[in-house]
User: Fold these one by one.
Assistant:
Number 1:
Amino acid sequence: MDDQLHATPVRLKHRVLNALMAPFGGWEMPIQYEGIIAEHSWCRSQAALFDICHMGEFLFQGDFATSGLEDVFTFSVQTIPVGRSRYGFLLNESGGIIDDLIVFRLADDKVMIVVNAATAPNDFTAITERLRGGLFTDITAATGKLDLQGPLSRSVMVELVGEEVATLPYFKFMTMNILGAPAIVSRTGYTGELGYEVLIPAEKVCELWDLLLSDIRVKPAGLGARDVLRLEVGYSLYGSDIDEATTPLEAGLENFVNFDKAFIGRDALLRQKEQGVTRKKVAFKVSGRRSPRHHYDICSAGETVGNVTSGVFSPMLGSGIGIGFVTPELTAVGTPLTITHERVSMEATVCELPFFKDGSVRS
C-alpha cells in the first residue's frame, strides 16, 4: 500500500476476499470483489455491505445559536428533531460547495456531522474557524462505518439488532448497543435502496463486518458498484459533480438550501439567483451501451457546450447515463446532445432525474 494512503480497519478483510483495491479520497479502498455488475445487481435485489470507514465524523456539543453552528450550514441545525438527520452543504463565501454532508441530532445540544473522506480535514478547519464556542472534536479515527443497502437489509438488521429497527423511517436513526458497544443505526444510504448506515467504534467494525457477511443474504460491494448505484438515482459525487467552484443553484440542489436563515455563502447565492446561472446540471441518457466518462465534452449543433462530470453504463436502463453541466437553455427534457471525446461520439437525450425510479429506498 502507498505509505501516503490511509487504511480502514477492514482493509485486511478486503484482502482476504481478493478485492481490487485502489486509492480513493486519500484512502486505499475496495473497488470491486466479484465484479461491479454483479455487486450492483445484488444490492438492487438482496443486501450489499459497503466499508465506508473512510468517511469523516465530527462531534459538536454546545449551544447551536451562540456558538455560531446554526450559521455554518445551508440548513437549520436547531430545527432538526432529536433522532433525525438532515442533508445539506458547507459553503464558501462565493456560494461554492466546500462539502455536502449530513448532520445527526444526537441531543438538544449535541450533533454528529458526517462528511466526505477527501474533504474531512478541510471541513474540520472551515467549521472550526466559523465557531465562536462549544466543543468541536474530530472522531473519525475512533469511528467505524458500514453501510448495509438493499431491499433485504431490513430483515437482516432486524435479526441482528431487533424489531425496533424496522420502525425507522427514512433519515431517522437510533442509538443502541451492538456487539457490546454503543452504535448508531441510521436509515440512510447512497444507493437508492432501502438501507442502513451503522456507526460503531473502530475496534468493533471488523467483528460487525464478519457477522453481517455470515448472513447468506449479504455480500460485500465496492466503490465501483456504489458509483453506478448512486448515479442511477441521481445522487451527486463530491469532487466530480459538485465542488468549491460549483454552487447548489448550478447543481440543481436548491432544495437543500434554506434562504430564510443566515449562512456563509447566502449573499452570493441570492445574487446568483437574481442574475441567473450561466451553467446548469443536466442529466442525459445515451442511445447505446457505451459509457460517457468524466471530462468528456457535451456538444450541441457542433459546438462544445459543457462537460460530463459523471457517467456509467446503467444495468437498470441498459444504456449509458451521465450528468454534466451545460448552458441553461439546453437542459429541457428531450433536448438532443452529443457526447464526444477524441474519436468517441455518442448521441444522447436530456432526461429527468432519477434515471432509475423503482428503488426500495422509501419502502
Number 2:
Amino acid sequence: MSREKPIFDLENTDDIRDLIHRSVAVVAGGGRVAFVHPGGLVRVLASATSDTPSPEISSSLLPTTFSIQILNAEALRDWTTETDRISPRIARKAWPGRVQLAYPSNDPVGLVQCLPQWLTQAAQRNGNYVLDSSAIGSIRELMTLIPGPLVQTTIRLNLPENVDIQALTTHLSAHNWDMIIVDRSARAATLPATVLVDQTKWSILDAGDIGIDQVNWLMGTRILFVCTGNTCRSPMAEALCKQFLAESLDCKPEELGAKGFEVKSAGVSAGHRQPASRESVTALGDHGYLLENHASQMVSEELLASADLIYAMTRSHRDLLLMDFPDLADRVELLDPDDYDVPDPYGQSLSVYQMTADAIREALELRAKTWNFIP
C-alpha cells in the first residue's frame, strides 16, 4: 500500500512561509514537489542539478513539457552567450511568467553545459532546451530559497475543476511525488508562450495562453522619451517619433501598435495626467493632434524596463535615470547624438517652442539612421 502523500492547500494554510520552507527541504533532499491547479495543470519542481532522472521527463506515458527555472533576467546571462542580444531583451519585458525561451539543444552554451546527463539527453530528444522564470508566487519563493536552478515538468491531468483535498488524494495516488501543494490562483492556470531564440532571430513555437498578438506586442520595439515635467519636450518627441515611424512604415500613427511599435514619454518630476502645453501642440503644426489626449506621467521602473530605447532630453535627465537605475547604461542616451541638451522652452514664446520642435525633429532623424528596425 502506498504511503499517504502530504497535500497542502495554499488557501487554507496559516503559515505559507513555513510550507515553502518544507518544500525547499524536499527539493534540497532530492525530492519532487508538485504544484497542482485543480483544473488539471500540474507543475513538478525538482533540482536541475540532481543526478537522479525525473520520472515525469523520462516517461512516455504522460504529455509533459519541461523547463529550467531561473529567478530573473539578470541570472539569464549565465545561460546564454555574450553576443545574444535577443534573450535579455525578451526576458526584460516578459519575465516573470509570460514567455519561456527555447534554444537549439545541438548548441548548448553557458551553464547548460553543466546540467546532468539525463537532462541534456531529454533536451536533445525535444530538440530544444527551455529557460523560464515562473510568475507563480509560491514557486518563486521556492526558487529564492534553494541554491541552483530547478527543473519544472508541466503535466496536464484530468482533474475536476473544484476538486477538494480529500478527492485529490485519490486522483493523485498513482504519482510518486514527495509533496503536493494546491495553488488555486489564476496565474497558476496560465501557460506561458514559448519563443525560440536561434542566434540572431526568434520565432514563436507556442503562443501559450497569452496569444500570438500579445507575444508579438512583447517582442515589439518600445521607445521612451524623458524630460522633466512631461508636458513640453518629451511629448513633442513622442509625437514626432510616432509621425516619423508612421511615414517610414506607411501606416497611420494609431496603427503603430499593430506594426510592433510603441512610443511613450515620461518625466523625472512630472505631475499626474497633465495635458501637453498649448505651445507644444501649436509648435507641431499638422502633427499637433497627436498631443490632444496626452497625459503626463512619472518615469517608473516598469516603463524603463520595457523600453528598448530611452532618450533623455538633457544630460541631467540621463544622469538622474542612471543614478537610480544603473543597469540602464546600455539603453539610455541623449536624444541629440552630438551630446547636446535640448533646452526647456517652458514659459517662453511660441517661437522658442518651434525652435525646440525643430531641434527634436533633427535629432530624431539622426538617431533613426542607426535604427535597424525600420525600412
